[in-house]
Design brief:
It is a multi-pass membrane protein. Keywords: Membrane, Transmembrane, Transmembrane helix. This is Membrane protein. With 206 residues, the protein is mainly alpha-helical. The chain is 85% helix and 0% strand. The chain has seven helices and no strands. Helix 1 packs antiparallel against helix 2 and helix 2 crosses helix 3. It is elongated. It starts with a helix and ends in a 6-residue tail after the last helix.
Length: 206
C-alpha cells in the first residue's frame, strides 16, 4: 500500500469526524510518512511502519472528546419547575389514559360475560334442580308416613326436578360447544380489529 492509498483508506475510516479534524489527521500522518521516507525508508515501508489503518482510526476516534452536552444546574432546576407546574395537566392526562384502558378491559370482559351468560344460567338452574330432586326424593318417604298425598306430591316434584336437571345438563353441554366457538370467534375478532391496530400505531408495543 502506497501513501495515497493509505491516506485515502484512512480518510474513509474517519468519516465520522468533522472535515477539519479529519484533514488535520490526514496531514499529520502524511507528514509522518514523509519523515520516514526522508530517513531512508521506501514509501511502502513508511506506510507499513505506521501500522494498520483500521487500528489507527479506532485510536483517533476514541481519543476525540465527547460531544454530549450536560445540562447546567439552572437548566435542571427549570426542568424540575416545569414538571411540577405541569403536574396537574399530565396527571389528568394519565388518569384519563388509565380510565380509557380500564373501560376497554371492562368492555372486553362484558363481551365474554354476555357470550357465556346463557350456559352459566342453565348450569345454575340445573344444579338447583338437582338439589331439589335429591331433597324431594329423600324427603318424600317421610312425608308419606304422615300424609300420603303430600309425600306423593313431593315425589312428583322430585321426579320433575330430576327430568329438568337432565334436560338442562344436556342443553348446557351442547350449548357450551357453540359458545366455545363464539368465544374463539370473539377473541379472533379482538386480535384482528383491536390488537393489530394498536400495533400499527405503536401503542401495543410500548
Amino acid at each position: 500500500m502506497n501513501k495515497h492509498e493509505f491516506l485515502d483508506h484512512l480518510e474513509r475510516l474517519l468519516k465520522s469526524l468533522p472535515r477539519q479534524e479529519r484533514q488535520k489527521m490526514l496531514a499529520y500522518y502524511a507528514e509522518m510518512i514523509d519523515d520516514r521516507m526522508e530517513e531512508g525508508m521506501s514509501e511502502q515501508e513508511a506506510v507499513q511502519d505506521l501500522g494498520d489503518a483500521g487500528m489507527l482510526a479506532e485510536q483517533i476516534v476514541s481519543a476525540q472528546p465527547s460531544k454530549e452536552k450536560k445540562l447546567s444546574n439552572p437548566m435542571k432546576v427549570l426542568i424540575i419547575v416545569l414538571i411540577v407546574l405541569g403536574s396537574p395537566l399530565w396527571a389528568c392526562l394519565l388518569l384519563a389514559l388509565l380510565a380509557l384502558i380500564c373501560t376497554g378491559i371492562l368492555l372486553i370482559l362484558t363481551g365474554y360475560i354476555m357470550i357465556w351468560l346463557i350456559p352459566v344460567l342453565s348450569a345454575t338452574i340445573m344444579v338447583a334442580s338437582l338439589i331439589l330432586c335429591i331433597i324431594s326424593l329423600i324427603g318424600s318417604p317421610f312425608l308419606m308416613v304422615s300424609s300420603f298425598m303430600t309425600g306423593l306430591l313431593q315425589l312428583g316434584v322430585g321426579l320433575i326436578a330430576a327430568g329438568l336437571s337432565i334436560l338442562l345438563g344436556l342443553f348446557t353441554i351442547y350449548a357450551s360447544r357453540y359458545f366455545i366457538k363464539a368465544t374463539m370467534s370473539f377473541s379472533h375478532w379482538l386480535k384482528e380489529h383491536l390488537f393489530y391496530r394498536l400495533k400499527e400505531v405503536h401503542v401495543w408495543q410500548s
